[in-house]
Amino acid sequence: MVFTERAGQKDSWGASDVPLGEITEAYKIDVWQAGVRIKSVTVSDVSWIYPSAAMATDLASGSFDIYVAQLSDRYGAGPERIITATS
């Protein structure tokens, strides 16, 4: 999964890459299925791989949601983008 970094409060999750505007680059990723948070990770890059072996262990078959939020040194987690996928 690869996502586009955001500039800050007024930026949208558009397709273009923008200057980060933060001291460090970090993103919070939460995986939810059937209303239960299955996994939570923090990454320092604009990509994350959910290995198929981990997915098989973590998830029941069916759809699941991945929430991605940029972390700010000043404001904490920004607005989340939700991606729905199927295991």
Helix content: under 10%
Give the domain tally.
Answer: 1
Amount of beta strand:
35-45%
Q: Care to count the β-strands?
A: 4
Identify the notable features of this structure and list them briefly.
87 residues, mainly beta, Immunoglobulin-like, 1 helix, elongated
Description:
This protein starts with 26 loop residues before the first strand and ends with a strand. A four-stranded antiparallel β-sheet has the order 2-1-3-4, with no helix packed on it. It has a single domain (1-87), classed as Immunoglobulin-like. With 87 residues, it is mainly β. The protein has one helix and four strands; from the N terminus they run E-E-H-E-E. The longest helix has 7 residues, at 52-58. The model is unreliable at 15-19 (pLDDT under 50). The chain is elongated.
